[in-house]
């Protein structure tokens, strides 16, 4: 990111490796819609000459003297969120906000990201996970962000057995939310989207009905299908600040909303007063940045190794070498109808 609205290649020095840190070279990287919001919406404010990217599988080329669990040559999964694990926020249970709100999100926010020949990882023992034999680079790269973010949506909504759930937005994050809701025992899962390729995969991941917002108001469709009762839970993985209006209205009293959508513009979120029970409807709204860390990555990796989830199915476009990054990034910006997620294999 050269500045808001502008991207291109630049030369930068390789970051210094601190005693607890690691330097990696990328093996596989993937652009994210968050990169698009950051560059073209200016969602984080101006960033000049900042390397983009926060989804990667890499190989360690240097480790700090205090790193215990990793060595040069190890292949590793790097989470998009890399907290400082000795921080006060981490000790209070919110490591993703270590150092301040959203400050666990360092790559392509506060420091250079992974779209480079080499990149820096802080607190290596806490933020890296060994890539086991038999797990593809494609599946592993989705463990950086798409899987943990999608799953966090289901966690924030506190899905319980038999719950009826609406998942609003079925891009790659929303698709993983559908998979997570299914794993957590949801009953009816309404997946809100329009692109055929995403709708088909949503069904494969556990959606029971597709709500196409191009064919009518999503609130009316869901209320009709639930005999006017609405749903127990909503996961928001797409849309904008106005999406909360429909989400609150379709939610039953005592229901919960889990938001993992990155709201890239707008100053206020629209919450309907009456539908929120004049503030007393016991309709909870939880929004959260995905947790990072090696333990969570290992647990999600276990789901891949036991064939419970197949995040590699998100990949629709493949590129080779760093030169493919820009084309992959622009695909995420333009979102053609045959796209779910691109990946760039470096090695």
Written description of the protein model:
This protein is α/β, with parallel strands linked by helices and 347 residues long. It folds into 2 domains: 22-145 and 290-345, Quinone Oxidoreductase, Chain A, domain 1; 149-287, Rossmann fold, CATH 3.40.50. 27% of the residues lie in helices and 19% in strands. It is built from 11 helices and 13 strands. The protein has helices spanning 33-41, 88-91, 124-127, 137-142, 146-157, 172-183, 196-205, 218-225, 243-250, 294-305, 325-334, and strands at 22-29, 56-63, 75-78, 119-121, 128-130, 165-168, 189-192, 209-211, 231-236, 251-259, 284-287, 315-320, 341-345. The strands form 2 sheets. Strands 1, 2, 3, 4, 5, 12 and 13 form a 7-stranded mixed sheet that branches. It has a 6-stranded parallel sheet with strand order 8-7-6-9-10-11, with helices on both faces. Helix 6 (172-183) packs parallel to helix 7. The longest helix has 12 residues, at 146-157. It is globular and about 60 Å long. It starts with 21 loop residues before the first strand and ends with a strand. The model has no long low-confidence stretch (mean pLDDT 96).
């Amino acid at each position: 990111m050269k500045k808001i609205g502008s991207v291109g290649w630049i030369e930068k020095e390789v970051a210094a490796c601190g005693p607890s840190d690691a330097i990696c070279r990328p093996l596989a990287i993937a652009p994210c819609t968050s990169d698009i919001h950051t560059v073209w919406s200016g969602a984080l404010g101006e960033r000049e000459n900042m390397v983009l990217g926060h989804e990667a599988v890499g190989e360690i080329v240097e480790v700090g003297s205090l790193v215990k669990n990793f060595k040069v040559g190890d292949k590793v999964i790097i989470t998009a969120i890399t907290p400082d694990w000795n921080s006060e926020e981490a000790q209070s249970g919110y490591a993703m906000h270590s150092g301040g709100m959203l400050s666990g999100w360092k790559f392509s926010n506060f420091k250079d990201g992974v779209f480079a020949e080499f990149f820096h990882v802080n607190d290596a023992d806490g933020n890296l996970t060994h890539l086991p034999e038999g797990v593809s680079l494609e599946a592993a790269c989705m463990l950086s962000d798409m899987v943990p973010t999608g799953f966090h949506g289901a966690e924030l909504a506190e899905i319980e057995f038999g719950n009826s759930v609406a998942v609003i937005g079925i891009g790659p994050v929303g698709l993983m939310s559908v998979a997570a809701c299914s794993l957590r025992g949801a009953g009816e899962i309404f997946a809100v989207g329009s692109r055929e390729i995403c709708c088909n995969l949503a069904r494969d991941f556990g959606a029971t009905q597709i709500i196409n917002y191009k064919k009518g108001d999503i609130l009316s469709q869901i209320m009709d299908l639930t005999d006017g009762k609405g749903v127990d839970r909503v996961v928001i993985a797409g849309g904008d600040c106005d999406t909360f209006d429909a989400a609150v209205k379709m939610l039953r009293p005592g229901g919960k909303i889990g938001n993992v959508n990155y709201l890239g513009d707008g100053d206020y979120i629209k919450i309907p007063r009456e539908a929120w029970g004049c503030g007393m409807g016991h309709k909870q709204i939880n929004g959260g940045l995905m947790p990072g860390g090696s333990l969570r990555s290992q647990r999600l990796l276990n789901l891949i190794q036991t064939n419970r989830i197949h995040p590699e199915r998100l990949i629709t476009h493949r590129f080779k070498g760093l030169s493919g990054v820009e084309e992959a990034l622009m695909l995420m910006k333009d979102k053609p109808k045959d796209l779910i997620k691109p990946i760039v294999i470096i090695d």
